[in-house]
Amino acid sequence: MQNLAPIALFVYNRPLHTQRTVKFLQQNELASESRLFIFSDGPKSAEDEEKVQEVRNFIQKIDGFKSVELIERKENKGLANSVIEGVNRLTKEYGQIIVFEDDLISSPYTLTYFNEALNRYRIEEKVMHIGAYMYPLTVQNLPESFFYRAATSWGWATWERAWLHFEPNIDTLMQAFDKPKKAAFSVEHTMNFWRQMRQFKTGKNNSWAIRWYASIFLKGGLTLNPSQSLINNIGHDGTGVHSGINDIYNVVINPKAIQDFPTVIEEHEAAYSAIKAFLQNRKGNIMSRIKRYVKEKLAIYFSK
């Protein structure tokens, strides 16, 4: 496969998660032919310095890729600024990018999927994002991959021509939404995407991902996704800055390569319905919610 995209890996202060993420990346069939760029954010406080250094001691020894470049920040930029800067740089240099964070384990075929899709849809302006994570859907007979409106941030790829439409200004984004757009944006109110926008505006989150999805949505763009996830997020254990403790989104990673890609550039209706149904029911009944709440509180208590 020609014209492989560079991989950007964003790390901070979780050495064990980073090691697992890298281990699975190294096992990808295109790893040895891919350039890896590791963006290591600086410590927020003196308390973080030891863990940040532990991560850096590990990443300085990584091999198994065509090349490895470390970008070690002295100051703490935060995940959002780190991602935006890294994606700006690599899309400008290479025209495309694959993005990983430090808590994602991948299939041996995840890089293959990304690069195949990047090449296949390179000039399709409507296709703006390639996601590798998918919710644990129970609907049968979905295609191996499909187009959908929302952008997942747990392992993704894009092109410079799409990223140029990224709008970082929350006011500019929010002003472009009317009531029907808000409903469509939030998958008919089954996901809290609009709330995430409001929370960003009030400083309660600093998400680059919600602004990226909003940018895609407002351009009428689509995202490519696998029906069975090629990524699992191992960060929902209370160690992440933006992740709580839960297992709602755990998945079994697809052990096979994606062979079939859509030829019609439009949202897949059955996949949209399956995702909407999952989101509506993901938290379960009241007893399931109580059990999960207790489990999360106990996990937080014993992790202190």
Total domain modules = 1
**What is the spatial order of strands in the main beta sheet?**
3-2-1-4-8-6-9-7
Structural class determined from secondary elements: alpha/beta
User: CATH superfamily name?
Assistant: Spore Coat Polysaccharide Biosynthesis Protein SpsA, Chain A
CATH architecture call: Alpha-Beta Complex
Main beta sheet? 8 strands, mixed
Kindly identify the CATH topology: Spore Coat Polysaccharide Biosynthesis Protein SpsA, Chain A
Structure description:
By secondary structure, this protein is an alpha/beta fold. It has a single domain, classed as Spore Coat Polysaccharide Biosynthesis Protein SpsA, Chain A (Alpha-Beta Complex), CATH 3.90.550.10. The protein has 11 helices and 10 strands. The chain has helices spanning 15-26, 46-59, 79-94, 110-120, 160-163, 170-175, 179-185, 193-201, 208-218, 269-281, 286-303; strands spanning 7-11, 35-40, 67-72, 96-101, 104-106, 127-131, 145-148, 156-159, 222-226, 231-233. The strands form 2 sheets. The chain has an 8-stranded mixed β-sheet, sandwiched between helices. Strands 5-10 form a two-stranded antiparallel ribbon. Helix 1 packs parallel to helix 2. The radius of gyration is 19 Å and the shape is globular. 38% of the residues are buried. Residues 240-245 and 285-304 have low confidence and may be disordered.
